[in-house]
Amino acid sequence: MNFISWAKANNLELSNDDVSQITSLRLGGLDIQTLPSCIQELKNLVTLEICECPNLEVISLNGESFPKLFELHIWNCPRLNKIENTLDQFSRLQFFRIRTCKSLLNVPESLAFVKSLISLSLCDCPLLENIPSLIGQSGNLREFYLSGCPSIQSIPASLLQSKYLNLNLAYNFY
Predict the structure, then answer these.
(1) pLDDT tens for residues 32-59?
(2) Does residue 110 belong to any structural domain of this protein?
(3) Residue 79 sits in which domain range?
């Protein structure tokens, strides 16, 4: 089993036999406020997608539990207001995308210390106020996309440290 999708499930449990084989997980349409603790057991997870969870308020992930995580996508979680400041523990994370999270105020500063990050996308988060001040300082970031985040007044100068950065800035009026 390489891929598992939990959509509108009431019981989120995994048997130990399944855990070691899962590389991709989609949590969608769940009525949860925080992520289920059982996902911390997915040591071989490469892709994690968290979507359409209308009551999700906090995302807390421990990078040591996901040593192979390569992609993290979070979208359409309207009550999400906090992502815990532990993203620097993800040593292989290359793609991080947040879209349509209407209550999110900040992206954790720890994201700036993910040296493997090559693509960051922040879209349709109208209350998002800032971008980590040191994001891009490693010089590895190749793509930064910002759209529909009118509360962001400036982008960090550290973004300009990469010689090969594709910078896409768009503005949506609300």
Answers:
(1) 999 988 888 899 999 999 999 999 999 9
(2) yes
(3) 3-169
